[in-house]
Amino acid sequence: MSTVRPAMPESSEQEAGHLRRAISGVTNGAITYACAGITAGIFSLFAFSLSSSGPAFFWGWLLVGLSVTFACLNYAELASHYPFAASIYHWPRRLAGNRAGWWVGWLYLGALLALLPAYTIVFPGILSSLFEYTTTQTNIALVAVAFIVVAALINMLGIEVLGRFTVVGVVAELIILFVLSVLVYAFGPHHSPTVLLHSYGTGSTLGDWLPGFLGGGIFVGMWALFTFETAGTLGEETIDAKRQAPRAILGALWLSVLAGAVFLFLFILSLPGIGASMASATPVQDTIDASLASWVTKLYLLTMVWVLFLATNTLFTAVCRHVYGMARDGQLPASGQLCRLTRSGEPWVAAIVVTVLTCLPLILVTQNLTVMVTGAIAAIYVPYVAVLSITLWARMRGWPTEKAPFSLGRWGIPVNIAAVVCAAASLVDLMWPRDATNPVWKLDIRVAYWLVGIPLAIGLVYYLGWLHRRLGDERPVAVTDAVPDEVPG
Question: Are residues 444 and 405 in contact, defined by beta-carbon separation less than 8 angstroms?
Answer without folding.
Answer: no
